[in-house]
Amino acid sequence: MLYLIGLGLGDVTDITVKGLETVRKCDKVFLEAYTSLLLNSELDTLEKYYDKEITIADREMVESQSELILDPALTQDVAFLVVGDPLGATTHTDIILRAIEKGINYRVIHNASIMNAVASTGLQLYNFGDTVSICFWKENWRPTSFVDKILKNLQNGLHVLCLLDIRVKEIDWSKMVRGKKVYEPPQFMSVNTAIEQILEIIKDKDNREREFLNEDTLCVGIARLGTEGQVIKSGSLRRLATEDFGKPLHSLCIVGKLHALEADMLRHFAVDKSDIPIL
To answer: What does the radius of gyration of the chain's CA atoms come to, in whole angstroms?
Structure first.
């Protein structure tokens, strides 16, 4: 049996009672450690709390060596732990499909994720459009299509949740060509970097598009959501571009058409209340 278990957003204690009971009865436990990170909880903390030895499952194991996770589930109970909710990334749907192909039964135990906890900003969940991922730019790779997706949402009056890049145990291909498997140091995109990339792209947009997305567009920067040290700040893109949000993990919301209650909540989080319209 394969159990996909959400760990929530904050720390080791955010797992549900059902999730904890399931982990403790499993024969093998894997922790997915590349689509997100559990803040404030090191591996040894998790192992002590769950009373289980945990194997880290990096991107290579999950996407290319999934048999290491799935084969034991043919005869044993296996827990696959995911920060947030288990189905917050397509990778985890893929591992379910692979389990089905092998005739392995599975069960999903859900938890809070950025996809619903973003309501802490005061923006109402049913007013959000498509979620957008923003990747780090490289010297010879600067994708811009995510801004087109942001614009499509804003033109429909919808808010946009932007998930910011996390690069953990990524192969350094410049070293790989010399026959060495070397990994890049971990990188976590900040709200500031995300806004910098957005503002760089919209310089080349026409006036009709800049009507919806420009330096004065309202947004919300989020850091370490779900922890005691979470930070939520609202303001224009220009204003939040220089705000300090502290340590990762960060997310960004671009604000669409506001309801009066949403505006009141954003005013509570505003760096400068003059950025928030009175409705």
So the answer is: 20
- 137: tokens are 């730019």
Tens of pLDDT, residues 105-114 = 999 999 999 9
Write out pLDDT tens, residues 52-73: 999 999 888 988 899 999 999 9
**Ranges of H-type helices in the chain:** 17-25, 43-50, 59-64, 67-70, 90-101, 114-117, 145-155, 173-176, 191-202, 207-210, 237-240, 260-268
The amino acid sitting at 245 is: F
pTM of the model: 0.90
The span from the CA of 190 to the CA of 166, in Å, is 10
**Residue 190 CB burial class (10 angstroms; 0-12, 13-18, ≥19):** buried
| pLDDT above 90 for 167 | no
Percent of the chain with pLDDT over 90: 76
Cα–Cα dist 263/279, whole Å? 7
- At 223 the three-state DSSP class reads strand
Tell me the average pLDDT across 163-175.
71
What are all long-range contacts of 188-191, with beta carbons under 8 Å and residues at least 24 apart?
188/164, 188/248, 188/249, 188/250, 189/134, 189/136, 189/164, 189/165, 189/250, 190/164, 190/245, 190/248, 190/250, 191/164, 191/221, 191/222, 191/223, 191/240, 191/243, 191/245, 191/250, 191/251, 191/252
Neighbours of 177 (CB within 10 A): 8
Rounded average pLDDT over 93-107 = 96
Q: Which two tokens stand for residue 217?
A: 């567009």
Per-residue pLDDT reduced to its tens digit, 204-218: 888 888 889 999 999
